[in-house]
Amino acid sequence: MAAEPQPKALTRKPLLLNKVEGSQEVVNMAAIVPKEDGVISVSEDRTVRVWLKRDSGQYWPSIYHAMPSPCSCMSFNPETRRLSIGLDNGTISEFILSEDYNKMTLVKSYQAHQSRVIMILFVLEMEWVLSTGQDKHFTWHCSESGQRLGGYRTSAGACGLQFDVETRHVFVGDHSGQVTILKLEQESCSLVTTFKGHTGGVTALCWDPIQRVLFSGSSDHSIIMWDIGGRKGTAIELQGHNDKVQSLSYAHHTRQLISCGADGGIVVWNMDVERQETPEWLDSDSCQKCDQPFFWNFKQMWDSKKIGLRQHHCRKCGKAVCGKCSSKRSSIPLMGFEFEVRVCDSCHESITDEERAPTATFHDSKHNIVHVHFDATRGWLLTSGTDKVIKLWDMTPVVS
């Protein structure tokens, strides 16, 4: 569903701290270096760069390393300073960065996929490197030996990858819109379940191990919060972007979800509220308010001598209604509708001003975002865009 004009953002805004420029092609992924004024980036121009802030206040590369193929993704572990890089040719290369971030040493490279590596995740506790590729495979390797431990064929290429250390469950979201949960053992995996709620492909996943909920972003512009731990199948929709959701990050200490999209929007969602599931849309051959027939209901149209009407649905109650009985619009933030959506007239009257109070703030990054990284210790957000620019934001005015 296309989103309607955005509500006005609150006055608190992220503060743009700096821009990091110099890449020749799109920066596919980047990360803030914890406890340092630094950024690690991998780009389509085949370069790995470590940017450190100089006395001038600008970021300059302390490491500039050319790879044999475009760099599609990365995973950085600050504790070990291990940098795992996925390449367009299917290779994963692992490096160790020096303490001063002025040198990177190759540890090993191995062919993980037959084509482009889409996502990569290093799990320190297991010494595993998890990855997905355009070859429609999820694989995991031993980070010590580089040995392939196992794999699973997905229904499509997967852009979403998350792992729960406690249960050894891996979550894989693919282009078909499906999320697959696998249980990993040392050298085998088993399918736990699959579920699907998006009308477009899954573009990002984010896991909250404390509340045990999974967030999925999609090319259908929506986000769904899946209550995995509750075991009740609860799925909450969040509608706040005008284009595909590109990346998700979660601030555990404040229970706020940060979503960024191809529309340039940064949306900060308050997840510390009691949200409601959106209703299933009901089927009917006539308006469930005034009983006027819909245009395919020829019998009732003939019997009542009335012209058939177009069917709509109320986003609050899910009833099938005609345009006349659903002429009003309203936001329903607790159902995830931060934009105004179609509601039937009776539901419109029942929605209070309190229920219309926003549960998200909206901000314009002024570039088409492809990836985000959030540093919770400082409240900094990194966004990388198709404009080849990395931006650093102070999010403490809105994430607190």
TrEMBL record:
SMART domains, per the entry: FYVE (SM00064), WD40 (SM00320)
Subcellular location: Early endosome
CDD domains according to UniProt: FYVE_WDFY1_like
Gene3D superfamilies to which the protein is assigned, alphabetical: YVTN repeat-like/Quinoprotein amine dehydrogenase, Zinc/RING finger domain, C3HC4 (zinc finger)
Keywords from the named record: Endosome, Metal-binding, Repeat, WD repeat, Zinc, Zinc-finger
Chief site of localization: other
GO biological process, one term: positive regulation of fat cell differentiation
Superkingdom of the source species: Eukaryota
WD-type repeats, residues: 20-51, 195-228, 238-279, 362-395
GO CC terms of this entry: early endosome
Domain FYVE-type: 281-352
SUPFAM superfamilies xrefs: FYVE/PHD zinc finger, WD40 repeat-like
Pfam hit, one: WD40
InterPro entries from the UniProt entry: WD40/YVTN_repeat-like_dom_sf, WD40_PAC1, WD40_repeat_CS, WD40_repeat_dom_sf, WD40_rpt, WDFY1/WDFY2, Znf_FYVE, Znf_FYVE-rel
GO molecular-function terms, A-Z: zinc ion binding
PANTHER family: LD41958P, WD REPEAT AND FYVE DOMAIN-CONTAINING PROTEIN 2
Official protein name in the record: FYVE-type domain-containing protein
Biological classification of the source: Eukaryota, Metazoa, Chordata, Craniata, Vertebrata
